[in-house]
Q: What sequence folds into this?
């Protein structure tokens, strides 16, 4: 990822996360975030200009995305507000096929004239690039849906909540952390609204209104005498929801060991910040892990990242084919393994599916960025590798004639390409609770929340940390552990999955800024699972002295 | 064309400042013309150009500030953006850490612009890709690469009379060459301000050789090994250490530079005494902007000298709290090297591993700066002064602080793009021989 394209939001608060500068658009007042966009008939008229101009210039296919991307970001530390940023980015991108080759051009001049020029430029670029094209682009058929619309189901638009109320909530969370022993706390709230209009020469005119939200914090405790410091991140998940996610509901609180609370479809940031401070304090003196083989009990807010890295990315078709070879890498999950029909990706209880329709998920949309209706499909069925993720111009390579609907661009100014849909582990069929996962473990570790993560360029070897670790001995949680990371191989790891909690424990983890491509683009994606157990995984001790 | 001259930018910024009715105002005007070409499977996959220019205005009343941006530059638009920043400033909560703009600073001469890079055309990019793809396809190799070039300017002015301007150019090239049998992979990276120094054919030949040499790698046991790190590998890890030299974090007790019992490790020896690291914006090989975004002047400055921490980075607020001068974030880093070539270093190695690059480096423990990641695209076993055979990739768990205490030898320097979090700019990094580098597991990835 090119760092110069990125601005670092705050030093400690985001733990190494970055927001792409191009997504920020121009700074606006919070009122602008609630102002209406162009109405649908106006958007349709402009879209038709693009489609007809492209066709008359020689395109055999064209699509246009007219997009208004709204963001708000609030950051605080202790009792101070560090930043409040509201921004708007507005423009359109025209993509065409001419002479069998893709061409793309974008403009922020959303007028008849501006769009005409962009369409002509896109066709000119396609024709120029055709000189390098080996095979003409082949698109899988898609239905023209006519004029349709889709909206994220939200109860409260986060932009309707006054900034002061959102700031107060973050400062209350900070105060709760400080009252419970935190030395420092940074908290942040991200809110995004994508207002997208898509039209293509296939006969679709699709108007979508997509919302996402992410509250997060880092609580740190320092111990002057020992010189040690420990941090505990929020156990929230970024969600495809409105501000209702920030209003805690009792029924969304999930049981976890040692009095910890985990959250499903609403989040109690104040409660979690208080717990975080207590846990960070405990980490200062917690026992350092003895390296060796352990049975791991992994809760969904941790397991989601392992799913993302070891199943989500290796099953991207463009990556398997080598289009990402110079950046993210290729994949061990090759097409011959897929075609064999007997590649044991995981144990028999492992069922992993892609689903762009899951309510509350970050990847949920009605239609993707090339006008394909969202759906659910299996990637791993009863442990066997059965499918990958593909879009219109590559799905034919699989011998399939229907796109999976996972095409996405981070903004109107970027060209759309294949991005990971929500990829989730299906809950177990037997009625197991989290306690059932723990009770027959002799030597194990319960891990909650995301931590350090690293995986090789073909997605074989990985290492994951976590937010909080508890030792399990003879079916009982015995206390907190430090310095834990597990290393495994993707196929070995998923084949060591022996037990999965039922749907009562199922919830979503999310990655808000997942990077891919050159130039790099981000996307947001969720991963659902229930707590699951993996036997005999290699745990290393990460403690060092400098 | 989004590149405004010093005078053109000044005219716009003077107009902006003249519209201010706030206690003070600061404006940043930035523009860039970028181009890129991407190829994979021995064929160009995408190419494009973009051009943008934008003005960001920050107005303040006391300790309340507001920012607004715009990309139109007629008088009415400029006045509108100033009014919007003022409106947002009035509504904003007080920021106790707000610092008033700086007065005029003295800046050194800039060396970041190159005419040859400014003249890059789409034809140049297509030829650069062809020069990389053609030799690959002749040798049963598949190329995937990316070339990106930019021309940009940055200007800032404030109501205290400061005006700063810089223009720069840059080109980044990387290519991954994979053998068609899927068992070998090589990589090379080049980074320059001046594109006339770039030869994608010469660079690609190195990656092709590595792909051919790395076929059919053997597995050896993970453990502690002497390694020779190529500059990209060494730089990726060490730049993470250098990006974490923030004084406030160290003072707050949450940095590897915090000291037991309180205080920081400023003035203490933390790595081998042969390690000297400095920043110098006027360095001929890796020039950087003579000022950073808030107008602070960058000067030649030691970061680590004789293994001792010489300077920490102080933002203006923290400097005011600690009664010290603010220290800007470095625009480049130079690690002093030696005279040994890679060949010399291999010749002097009894048993060791040559690492082309690291991949997917992520922090594991901020207390010790422990990082994990993997080797990639060319890892070789050295025995009795010779490369014996390619080896399978390893995962490492290592801290750059520990690594620089285990220094064996420094070789010749090379310019690399600065990776890692909070990076940006370029670094001059030597080949490094390190003993007891910790590899913790094997990877089957090619």
A:
């Amino acid at each position: 990822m090119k760092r110069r394209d990125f601005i670092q939001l705050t030093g400690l608060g985001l733990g190494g996360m970055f927001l792409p500068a191009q997504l920020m658009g121009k700074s606006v007042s919070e009122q602008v975030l609630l102002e209406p966009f162009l109405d649908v008939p106006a958007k349709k008229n402009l879209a038709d200009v693009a489609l007809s101009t492209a066709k008359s210039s020689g395109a055999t296919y064209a699509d246009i995305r007219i997009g208004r991307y709204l963001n708000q970001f609030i950051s605080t530390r202790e009792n101070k507000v560090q930043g409040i940023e509201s921004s708007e980015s507005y423009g359109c991108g025209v993509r065409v096929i001419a002479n069998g080759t893709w061409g793309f051009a974008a403009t922020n001049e959303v007028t008849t004239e501006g769009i005409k020029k962009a369409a002509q430029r896109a066709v000119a670029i396609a024709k120029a690039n055709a000189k390098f094209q080996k095979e003409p682009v082949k698109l899988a058929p898609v239905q023209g849906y006519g004029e349709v619309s889709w909206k994220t189901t939200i109860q409260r638009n986060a932009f309707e909540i006054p900034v002061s109320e959102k700031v107060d909530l973050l400062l209350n969370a900070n105060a709760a952390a400080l009252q419970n022993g935190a030395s420092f706390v940074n908290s942040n709230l991200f809110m995004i609204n994508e207002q997208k209009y898509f039209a293509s020469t296939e006969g679709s005119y699709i108007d979508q209104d997509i919302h996402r939200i992410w509250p997060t914090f880092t609580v740190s405790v320092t111990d002057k005498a020992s010189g040690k410091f420990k941090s505990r991140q929020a156990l929230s998940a970024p969600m495809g929801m409105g501000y209702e996610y920030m209003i805690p509901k009792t029924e969304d609180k999930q049981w976890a060991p040692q009095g910890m609370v985990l959250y499903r479809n609403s989040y109690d940031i104040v409660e979690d910040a208080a717990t975080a401070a207590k846990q960070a304090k405990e980490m200062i003196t917690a026992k350092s892990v003895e390296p060796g083989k352990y049975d791991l009990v992994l809760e969904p807010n941790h397991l989601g990242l392992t799913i993302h890295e070891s199943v989500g990315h290796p099953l991207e078709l463009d990556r398997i084919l080598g289009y990402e070879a110079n950046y993210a890498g290729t994949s061990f999950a090759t097409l011959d393994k897929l075609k064999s029909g007997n590649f044991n990706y995981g144990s028999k209880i492992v069922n992993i599916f892609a689903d762009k329709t899951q309510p509350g998920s970050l990847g949920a949309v009605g239609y993707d960025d090339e006008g394909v209706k969202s759906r659910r499909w299996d990637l791993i069925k009863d442990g066997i590798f059965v499918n990958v993720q593909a879009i219109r111009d590559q799905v034919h390579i699989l011998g399939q004639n229907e796109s999976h609907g996972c095409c996405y661009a981070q903004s109107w100014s970027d060209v759309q390409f294949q991005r990971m849909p929500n990829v989730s582990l299906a809950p177990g069929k037997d009625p197991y609770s989290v306690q059932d996962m723990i009770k027959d473990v002799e030597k194990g570790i319960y891990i909650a929340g995301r931590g350090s993560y690293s995986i090789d360029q073909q997605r074989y070897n990985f290492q994951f940390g976590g937010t909080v670790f508890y030792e399990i001995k003879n079916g009982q949680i015995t206390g907190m552990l430090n310095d834990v990371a597990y290393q495994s191989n993707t196929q070995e790891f998923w084949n060591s999955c022996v037990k999965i909690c039922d749907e009562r424990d199922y919830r979503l983890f999310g990655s808000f800024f997942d990077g891919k491509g050159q130039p790099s683009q981000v996307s947001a994606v969720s991963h659902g699972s229930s707590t699951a157990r993996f036997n005999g995984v290699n745990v290393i001790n990460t403690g060092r002295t400098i | 064309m989004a590149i405004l001259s010093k005078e053109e930018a000044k005219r716009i910024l003077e107009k902006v400042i003249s519209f201010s009715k706030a206690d003070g105002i600061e404006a940043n005007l930035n523009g860039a013309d970028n181009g890129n070409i991407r190829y994979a499977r021995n064929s160009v996959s995408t190419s494009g150009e973009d051009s943008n220019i934008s003005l960001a205005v920050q107005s303040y009343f006391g300790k309340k500030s507001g920012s607004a941006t715009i990309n139109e530059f007629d008088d009415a638009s400029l006045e509108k953006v100033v009014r919007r920043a003022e409106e947002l400033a009035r509504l904003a909560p007080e920021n106790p850490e707000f610092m008033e703009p700086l007065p005029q600073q003295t800046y050194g001469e800039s060396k970041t612009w190159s005419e040859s890079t400014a003249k890059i055309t789409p034809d140049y990019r297509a030829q650069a890709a062809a020069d990389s793809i053609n030799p690959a396809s002749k040798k049963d190799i598949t190329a995937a690469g990316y070339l990106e070039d930019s021309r940009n300017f940055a200007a800032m002015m404030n109501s205290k009379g400061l005006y700063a301007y810089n223009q720069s150019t840059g080109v980044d090239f990387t290519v991954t060459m994979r053998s068609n049998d899927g068992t070998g992979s090589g990589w090379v990276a080049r980074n320059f301000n001046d594109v006339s120094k770039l030869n994608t054919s010469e660079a690609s030949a190195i990656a092709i050789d590595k792909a051919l040499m790395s076929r059919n790698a053997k597995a050896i046991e993970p453990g502690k090994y002497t390694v020779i790190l190529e500059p990209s590998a060494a730089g990726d890890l060490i730049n993470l250490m250098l990006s974490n030299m923030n004084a406030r974090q160290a003072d707050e007790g949450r940095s590897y530079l915090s000291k037991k019992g309180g205080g920081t490790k400023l003035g203490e020896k933390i790595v081998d005494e042969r390690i000297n690291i400095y920043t110098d914006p006027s360095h001929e090989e890796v020039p950087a902007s003579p000022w950073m975004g808030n107008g602070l002047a960058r000067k030649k400055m030691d970061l680590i000298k004789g293994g001792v921490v010489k300077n920490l980075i102080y933002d203006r607020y923290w400097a005011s709290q600690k009664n010290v001068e603010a220290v800007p974030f470095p625009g480049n880093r130079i690690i002093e090297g030696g005279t040994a070539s890679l060949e010399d270093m291999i010749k002097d190695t009894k048993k060791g591993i040559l690492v082309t690059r690291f991949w997917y480096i992520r922090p594991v423990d901020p207390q010790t700066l422990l990082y994990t990641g993997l080797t990639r695209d060319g890892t070789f076993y050295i025995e009795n002064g010779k490369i014996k055979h390619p080896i399978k990739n390893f995962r490492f768990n290592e801290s750059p602080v520990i690594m620089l205490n285990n220094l064996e030898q420094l070789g010749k320097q090379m310019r690399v793009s600065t990776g890692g979090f909070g990076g940006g700019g370029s670094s001059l990094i030597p080949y490094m021989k390190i003993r007891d580098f910790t590899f913790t597991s094997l990877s089957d990835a090619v």
